[in-house]
Design goal:
Blueprint lengths: L2 H11 L3 H15 L4 H19 L8 H14 L1
Amino acid sequence: MTTTAEALSAQAALLPPAERMQVVERILDSLDQPDAALDTLWAHEASDRLAAYRRGEIKAVALSDVIAKYSAAAQRT
């Protein structure tokens, strides 16, 4: 981390929790910008996965199974 980033982190740590959350939200908002190249990559990935599903190469997993799996994993950590 740069000296500037370390200084900002130290200053942010002194803020009350609600104000720290506001800072975090602003930083995250600044990072959440559209990325056409990334959107294109994800569109291709989704198309490839759907095609593989339709060819029978991969199977669907029930949402309840996915939630159970990751809930159990989260409880172990």
